[in-house]
Design a protein that fits this description.
The chain is of the alpha/beta class and 336 residues long. Helix content is 33%, strand content 23%.
Length: 336
């Protein structure tokens, strides 16, 4: 099989992880880097000994016949223009989270991807973290019995201020959209049921970003489950990604498992020995697994997960949580 060519649009911090992932998969190679700051692309090209073009206009990369996959890793508010252009050019697309800051933009991306018949994956990269994969399998196997409560939290002290694009409402969006979406994605994944309503509260601190850094939300799911999630940029503490799954036959708190249905006679929590989602450093995150799984889906003509259609539900829940916190009322998901 000829190698699949990849183009990366946006040469910030996370771009290096995609470059490494494509380099390490024998089925792919990087053929284009797109950035408004060519010096950033030059550094990546030299660092990874790439034989690729550098462009300041994405159209130059998208018109290439030897580019099959496009990674959109630009600031959040510009994702839509590049996702739509990539799909219209017939390219499969990897979309950095959040996919967009408005549901109108999400719908534009969905429509473009569907019309073009290309595949998409949204980089909720913790889907490929070993602990989260283990939790998914335990739920699937019924180890917890009837799951009635799920908790997932994202705590990461982000104190960049409005001088950095992430700290602005225009490009960063909100705490939930900018990063808490990882927790919301996991909450939905483990719930196995559509979210129907959310009630949320936000907190203002002296954090210099342009939006409240903390939002806590209670979510009601269609099947009766309750979920709770917090996105917090404000607390002075190490990075934490908490997971709680509570069921009638067992429970889990992060890597601590109580599952007497699986281990008869168990009388205390046991520790699951695996890599944890315990760092905000992108080098710790499983981009290799994400990229290789996406290539598997392209080659095998299977639906990737989470794709743009699944991520639309996560984005809607984040936006509903923000709306609930801002207006001081419960918000139904069909309102957004």
């Amino acid at each position: 099989m000829d190698k699949l060519g990849a183009a990366v649009i946006g040469c910030g911090w996370v771009a290096g992880e995609y470059i490494k992932a494509f380099q390490n998969d024998a089925r792919t190679e990087v053929r284009a880097l797109v950035t408004r700051t060519p010096a950033k692309a030059e550094r990546y090209r030299e660092q990874y000994a790439l034989d690729c073009m550098i462009a300041t206009d994405a159209a130059d990369a998208l018109r290439r016949d030897d580019v099959d996959i496009v990674v959109v890793a630009t600031p959040h508010d510009s994702h839509t223009e590049y996702v739509v252009a990539s799909a219209e050019a017939g390219k499969h697309v990897v979309i950095e989270k959040p996919v967009a800051l408005t549901m109108a933009d999400v719908r534009r991306q969905q429509a473009a991807v569907a019309k073009a018949g290309v595949k998409s994956v949204v980089s909720f990269v913790l889907h490929w973290n070993p602990l989260l994969e283990t939790v998914d399998r335990l739920i699937e196997q019924g180890v917890f019995g009837t799951v009635f409560l799920i908790e997932v939290d994202y705590f990461h002290r982000i104190w960049c201020g409005p001088d950095h694009w992430l700290g602005t409402r225009k490009q960063g969006g909100t705490s939930m959209l900018a990063a808490g979406c990882h927790a919301v994605d996991a909450l939905r994944w483990f719930a196995r049921s559509p979210a129907v309503e959310v009630c949320a509260y936000q907190v203002e601190t002296e954090n210099p970003i342009e939006y409240p850094g903390t939002n806590t939300a209670i979510v009601r799911f269609e099947d009766g489950k309750v979920g709770r999630t917090t996105s917090c940029f404000d607390a002075r503490m190490p990075y934490v990604f908490n997971i709680g799954v509570y069921g009638t036959e067992g429970s889990l708190r992060n890597d601590k498992l109580f599952a007497p249905k699986l281990f008869p006679g168990q009388n205390g929590f046991m520790t699951i020995p695996c890599v944890l989602p315990d760092s905000g450093d992108v080098t710790h995150h499983p981009f290799q697994a994400e990229v290789s799984r996406f290539v598997d889906c392209i080659v095998g003509d299977r639906r990737p997960a989470p794709d743009i259609d699944d991520a639309a539900h996560t984005t809607a829940l984040c936006i509903a949580a923000d709306l609930s916190a801002e207006e001081g009322r419960p918000v139904a998901l069909d309102e957004v």
